Amino acid sequence: MTEGKTAAPGAALRCFGDGDPLYEAYHDDEWGRPVHGEQALLERIALEGFQSGLSWITVLRKRPAFREVFEGFDPEKVAAFGSDDVERLLTDARIIRNRMKIEATIDNARAVIALHDSGRTLDELFWSFAPEPGARERPATFGDIPGWTDESKAMSKAMKKQGFRFIGPTTAYAAMQACGLVDDHVATCPAVLGRGRILAPGEVS
User: pTM value?
Assistant: First the structure.
């Protein structure tokens, strides 16, 4: 996530999403909350890849269709997709029709299956790159948030080694933000000041 409205000092603006109910709900209920599980993580990785070069709200609006055509991002089902499925998806105007990104999602599902075959999980691999809590000061504005970090660079390298595609350091960091490995809500965000609905990583409602 590299876009959004910057909260002015003293204001109760969200980091991003103000003014769009779908975007607001994503900010309040999802972004920065810990995500676990093979399907949920595969979905986040896939959608961050599809977002590359586009606005996140575009992906968010298409997410129900993505979930439908990719079988809920069930790794076993997506890993079984073949060339006919790729061509089918390329004709579906409800999703982002990019051959490389579609094929990468299928390859990533196969990489998840390969991890399982070796006795590992995507959850284990992905979360192994979570930085220590408090390792970085909370950003004051969205402009203070890095595009990538040493951890996301290491994650990208490790996941590519395992056969994952379309997950460079920037995409990896966006996935880390989305899945709660890092908390990049800005200091003046309602989520931080206690006026939002989102929970900090590890917090119990």
Answer: 0.88
